[in-house]
Hints:
By secondary structure, the chain is mainly alpha-helical. It has eight helices and no strands. It has helices spanning 7-12, 17-29, 35-39, 45-51, 55-68, 79-94, 99-106, 114-137. It starts with 6 loop residues before the first helix and ends with a helix. The relative contact order is 0.16. The mean pLDDT is 96.
Amino acid sequence: MLKDCYEKYYFEQNYNCAETLIRAANDYYDLQLHDRDMIMLGAYGAGIQTGNTCGAILAAASVLSMKYIEQKAHESKDIKPVTTDLIREFNKRYGSVLCKDIKAQSFKPEYRCKMTVETACDILEQVIADYEKSRDKG
Length: 138
């Protein structure tokens, strides 16, 4: 499970939600990203540092890009539906995709955004599994 990969980054190495999710997904899905590539997502943490869109969601969308875009997003038949599913599931769970709204529901000072990262792992993994199943049927 993707969720089994995140703790070393979040707790042991003190990465933020976005950095943690991309690093865990890199391990789990073998995205072949290098350390320098993943630094790009650092500013996504804390809702792009402003409480806006949750960094874990942005990192999850970045994982989908790596999995479903060959060259250009507008040439991928997969990226829009799978990203739509991701956002739908976050909205279902939290009623929002904004960090400030999600944080109000799941942030605990002693664990920071642990629950959000775990939820993001679960949602991302489920969205990918469901999408892959639907593609196999079609």
